[in-house]
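Weekly modeling sync, notes
Attendees: S.R. (lead), two postdocs, one rotation student

Agenda item 3: backlog of single-chain predictions. S.R. asked that every request posted to the team notebook include the full sequence so nobody has to chase files. The rotation student volunteered to paste the first one in as an example of the format we agreed on. Action items at the bottom.

Example entry:
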Amino acid sequence: RYCRIPYATKGPRDAGWQNNPLELTQVPDDMNIGVLLGPASGGIAALDFDGPLAWDWWDANIGIAIPDTVTWTSGKPGRCQMAFYVEDIFWEHLATKKVDVGEGQGFEFRWTGGQSVLPPSQHPDTQQPYFWLRAPTEVNIARIPDEVLRAWLKHKPAEREATELVEQGSIDTITESEYNTLIKAVDVI
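Predicted structure, as returned to the notebook:
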């Protein structure tokens, strides 16, 4: 469920890395390491706080205490990522979404097709290693809170805007399977 990344960079270079997860032992010590997100990792999502304004956005839009979970940082002020487990019933309804909070900062719901660089990888800007705030040896990955799922679904990616939903048809045109999936999702939330 990992990918190898050239040292002191953030992006994988191997073709098909999203579909060919590696085991931890397959990532050489002289490379950065990324954890795959979404179904490829069994439902791991990352919440990425990219600056102090991201925390203000969190307080204004989600406003819950964050559960104790695996957390890491580059050491840059106000920046960290947190891992959460997402139940498979929601997987197909989620996509990576970045929320611009101003001044070059943002909050990101990270999911399928992406990865997050983990400690002890070297950060390209700081030239320092990422480090654990809450290591996987100290705490389990928490289940994503319902309030976070609601906010994530509310801030769906641009390609799922209302115009596309109208083009797809009305509630009368969905299949019974799609309807049952939606009912299950609403029940869980």
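Discussion: group reviewed the output briefly. Residues 176-188 form the longest helix (13 residues).
Action items: rotation student to repeat for the remaining queue; S.R. to check formatting next week.
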